[in-house]
Specification:
Elements (H helix, E strand, L loop, with lengths): L4 E7 L10 H10 L5 E8 L22 E5 L4 H17 L18 H23 L9 H15 L3 E6 L3 H13 L3 E5 L16 H16 L2 E4 L2 H10 L8 E3 L9 H11 L7 E7 L9 H10 L5 E7 L19 E7 L3 H10 L2 E6 L8 H6 L6 E5 L3 H9 L2 E4 L4 H13 L7 H10 L2 H17 L1
Parallel strand pairs: 1-2, 1-4, 2-3, 4-5, 5-6, 6-7, 8-9, 8-11, 9-10, 11-12, 12-13
């Protein structure tokens, strides 16, 4: 029989924070004891996780008896921003601080011209300082408040391994510091790429990108084991860190919590339509930001409704104003409806997913990552409309045979994919491909893989 060992886990997202990352750490915390590992979780206080939304219902998902320590978070970027703003506002009222086009100062310059010139300059200064204070990310203020309780817990309970999960990837720096102070083995878990982020807006060779690459290198070099959640990201890390032994890099994908399967099946029986019955219902349960543009999907809904059935689409989650479809979301003949219902508690979002015929996944311009939402969709056994290009997400949907993959920017192609789903056996929810997927991505199985990583790290 194995000796019971403990792992000190650091995770910025944790219930009741309504972030996709909470479900991975929750699954691990729930099922690690089955592999003779006792988790001890350190996370920010509930009031300190701004701007992450809070969902009080997620408290119910925290495993009974789990030790959780919540710490404060410093906000250096916010304090610095306010301080710099006050300084620049003071400077902005002085005429001799505004340069003319010739490069000389003008004390008689028109006030409106002076104001228009000073605003862009002060804005650029503020942005530069804010970026500097938010390096490697805006949650760096959790580093110091987390290190102190981490050291106390190490002295008190003598854990066998330190585990950190990101994003935010500044969390990994906490692990590096504690490893150097304690000598304990360190396991890093990258839920998303760090230096190789595909959605970044920073210039390729900017100071911010260069510093991020250095932070990542320091953390990877210090770690005993590095976990990536797709084979594509693992291969990318191996390609970058060719001087590091490849055995250090392990792939543990996201998955689903089997404890929710019975609940989901009950919701599908209660709400789920057996077939179209004249109205086809789609649901995207997730935020729409960055490049997750809802407007092509809204147009596709109108096109698809020109057939023999009414089409209703629900967007459950926050929506960036720039990506929101027009307010007039219902067509003149009332055959297509696109509703943005906003953010909902997790259990209510599951109910909306249960009511749908088709579940929508939006993952554009990201070839390396697979969103955790895909795995949460599997227990519903409903066809998945994956709006994504070639890459890890689209490849997995096709490999599993659980849906259609289509260009997220092409309304006509999206509408055609909706028609194909209706015309094929997918809408009748053939259980075979979903059964295979559920076996492969069972959270208990994946947590056993994590326990094996901890065993290896503790044995080194």
């Amino acid at each position: 029989m194995k000796t019971k060992r403990s792992v000190l886990m650091f995770s910025y997202p944790f219930p009741p924070a309504a972030s996709g990352g909470v479900f991975r750490i929750l699954r691990f915390a729930r099922y690690l004891p089955q592999s003779d590992w006792t988790p001890l979780v350190v996370t920010p206080r509930v009031k300190s996780v701004t701007p992450i939304s809070i969902d009080e219902s997620l408290y119910d998902l925290i495993p009974e008896g789990l030790a959780v320590e919540r710490t404060r978070v410093l906000r250096p970027s916010i304090a610095t921003k306010a301080f710099v703003k006050r300084i620049l506002e003071g400077i902005g009222i002085r005429r001799d601080d505004v340069a003319t086009d010739s490069g000389h100062q003008s004390r008689k310059q028109d006030p409106s011209i002076r104001q228009s010139q000073s605003k862009p300059r002060s804005r650029n200064i503020r942005r530069s300082i804010e970026k500097m204070m938010a390096t490697p990310d805006r949650h760096i203020g959790w580093l110091l408040p987390a290190v102190a309780p981490g050291l106390r817990e190490i002295r008190r309970s003598r854990p066998h391994v330190i585990y950190t999960t990101g994003p935010p990837h500044s969390t990994h720096l906490i692990g590096v510091i504690l490893k150097r102070l304690s000598g304990l083995p360190l396991v890093l878990d990258f839920r998303d790429p760090w230096a190789a982020r595909e959605w970044t807006t920073d210039a390729p060779h900017s100071t911010r990108v260069t510093s991020t690459e250095r932070f990542e290198s320091v953390c990877v070099q210090a770690a005993d084991q590095v976990i990536l959640n797709t084979p594509a990201v693992r291969d990318a890390f191996i390609a970058v860190y060719g001087d590091v032994r490849n055995a250090k890099f392990r792939c543990i994908p996201n998955g689903f919590d089997p404890s929710l399967v019975a609940k989901v099946e009950g919701l599908v029986c209660q709400y789920g339509p057996a077939d179209v019955n004249g109205t086809l219902k789609l649901c995207h349960a997730g935020s729409a930001w960055g490049k997750r543009d809802l407007r092509p999907l809204a147009k596709a809904v109108e096109i698809a409704a020109s057939g023999d059935y009414r089409v209703e689409m629900e967007q459950v989650g926050a929506v960036s104003p720039a990506l929101r479809p027009p307010d007039a979301l219902e067509s003149a003949d009332c055959r297509s409806v696109f509703r943005c219902v906003g953010e909902l508690p997790h259990h209510e979002a599951l109910e909306h997913m249960a009511r749908a015929n088709i579940l929508v996944l939006i993952q554009p311009d990201n070839t390396l990552q697979i969103p955790g939402k895909l795995y949460e969709m599997l227990p519903f056994r409903k066809p998945i409309l994956a709006l994504t290009g070639r890459g890890a997400t689209g490849d997995l949907v096709e490999q599993l045979g659980v849906g259609q993959v289509v260009d997220p920017s092409d309304p006509q192609a999206i509408a055609s994919s909706i028609h194909r789903i209706v015309q094929t056996s997918l809408l009748r929810r053939d259980p075979t491909p979903f059964d295979r997927a559920l076996e492969r991505f069972d959270g208990r199985r994946l947590t056993r893989d994590l326990a094996d990583v901890f065993d290896s790290a503790a044995a080194e």
